[in-house]
Design goal:
The chain is an alpha+beta fold. The protein has one domain (about 5-120): Ribosomal Protein S5, domain 2, CATH 3.30.230. It contains three helices and four strands, in the order αβββαβα. The protein has a four-stranded mixed sheet, with helices on both faces.
């Protein structure tokens, strides 16, 4: 049980180069607290990877680290339910207030919605 609620390096997005394409080309979903971007990986059978980005306008380092801790905790509990083969970037919505319970409730729904929106947006395009 303990092993399945970890957040190992294999399921993390690291570096600016990994975040950029997901944010630019991926589908997204938002609620009053979070914004989630989703982009399929080349290998659809791969584990989903998650990245957390907290802009400086969110607050000082203490506030940003608190956001990261709550988002990572929510990821630990719902990452096995997420669609496999996707890269996800999660960030707080502009002007949102930190609410750990809201993050834990909303993140699984946002992950599903973001993957559906990506799939829905790519089906009508010719490229």
């Amino acid at each position: 049980m303990v092993g399945e609620h970890r957040f190992p390096k294999a399921v993390r997005l690291c570096g600016h180069d990994a975040f950029g394409p997901v944010i630019r080309r991926g589908g997204f979903a938002a609620d009053q607290t979070l914004v989630v971007h989703a982009l399929p990986q080349e290998n659809a059978a791969a584990l989903s990877r998650f990245g957390v980005t907290i802009p400086r306008r969110t607050g000082n380092a203490v506030v940003r680290n608190r956001w990261k801790r709550h988002i990572r905790e929510a990821i630990r509990h719902c990452r096995l339910e997420a669609a496999s083969g996707f890269d996800f970037v999660i960030r707080p919505k502009k002007g949102a207030t930190l609410d750990g319970a809201q993050i834990r409730r909303g993140l699984p729904k946002l992950l599903k919605r973001a993957t559906r929106r990506y799939r829905g947006s790519s089906s009508g395009k010719s490229s």
